[in-house]
From TrEMBL, chain A:
Domain of life: Bacteria
Keywords in alphabetical order: ATP-binding, Nucleotide-binding, Transport
Naturally occurring in which organism (per UniProt): Terrihalobacillus insolitus
Gene Ontology terms, MF aspect: ATP binding; ATP hydrolysis activity
Family, similarity comment: Belongs to the ABC transporter superfamily.
Residue ranges constituting the ABC transporter domain according to the UniProt record: 8-218
Name of this protein: ATP-binding cassette domain-containing protein
Pfam families attached to this UniProt entry: ABC_tran
TrEMBL record, chain B:
Name of this chain's protein: Uncharacterized protein
Keywords of this entry: Membrane, Transmembrane, Transmembrane helix
Spans traversing the lipid bilayer: 74-92, 113-138, 171-193, 200-221, 241-263
Amino acid sequence: MTEHDVYLKADHVSKEIKNELILDDINLSLQKGFIYGFRGKNGSGKTMLFRALCGLILSTKGTISIGGITLGKEGSFPPSVGVLIEYPGFLNGYTGFKNLKMLANLNDVIDDNRISESIRLVGLDPNDKRKYRKYSLGMKQRLGIAQAIMEKPELIILDEPTNALDSDGVEEFKKLLLDLKAQNKCILIASHDKEELDYLSDEIFMMENGKIVDHYNL
Amino acid sequence: MMKYSIYKLFSRDMAYSISNGKYKYVFLFSIVAILSLMTSIQLDSYGSNSVGIFYSLLKDNGYIYQLSDYQVPFNWVFIQFLVLFLIGDFLFQDLDNNRTYLLLRCRSRGRYIFSKMCWIVVQNIVLYIVIFAVIYIVSSMTIGDFSVGSSPYFENAIASQMDIQITPVQFIARILLGYIMTSIVLSSILLLGIQFISPVITYFGVIILSGVSTFSDLKWLPAIHSMILKQAIFDYEHYLTLRFSIMYSVVLYFLVSIVTFIVSRKKDIL
């Protein structure tokens, strides 16, 4: 892998909050067209790392470059990113489509057809008139995934995306992710499920106490 | 592009807050309607129209010269705090649940906070205009008098206490302006507070800050500007003028907003 191939680079990234080191000397060089799995116990720093990669927390040391932009210097946020970190606060009184449209309106890069397509891709019906409050946990998770991919981002970051999904949902999700990988997206996924991560990922990073303690290719 | 993005964020904030809080807003307006009805029934025999109801319902406890004179201005406290609760409820929920998804789309912390500042101003104005409309409609219907001019009650109970005479319409406008300005300033303090500390602590902090105004004469307290009895029209001695109230509230709102704007740009979103 040459420097030119690298889409996301974290260079000696550390983050300290209230004298506690939550990210410790993280180094990553990630490419498009690959799926990267992150595994670790609760509190190991996976979500914090994802937040740092999204520009939501600012690193105390080190730099993060995504798509040629150094976060905190040339831009506050990655140029093209879709994330699922915890449930988005969708409106209970809106349908799934209307909730996504409300978010999509903010940057205006996709039309209604693409919103409908994203909803279909996660196994939901874009014409479903049920309000979000009537959705099951699995449907809510699917809609969360749909909002992460709908704007066709180059970088996709998913934290525990299969939580609450049934077995059919997990299979559909795996297929969707492999399709996105084929579309040359750079995909980061955190999960407790070793089998699922091993199946999907090209490379696995093991995290502990805010540090990458091991990584291996599959 | 930036202006357009702020407008979209602001439109989304309005739509989201109305949809998410509609039942809470209906509860607020229902409480105001009940209070208006009760006050109207009480004052009907004194020859009051809706102006008297506005005064009776929204007045504060005035300046305290002896501790034994102190009375809690229940309606002033209740209406003001309930509005602040609804404003704070949206601000915190949105910060907690949606900020990540909005920031990554609008791609600017500054724009996100700026839209919230605009939302605070517009939402407070809209809420208080509806509250005043509810009071006017309920009281006028109960009393059977839709005029907003002078009435025997206004002359005997309100104008007789005034050090500076103003018309009933000016009187209502001053009360409305006071409540809106105070609520905007306190809401902006809420927005600043929840960047650092828990929403519950922030809310109680703001309540205490407001509550102090019921004891104190200090014109630098933000909530004192919604207290009509502490305005110069009723108490020329203390010289709390409408001009000062407007200027002070506007300056304070901008100062708090600027601080919020600056700190939010460097704030980690955990």
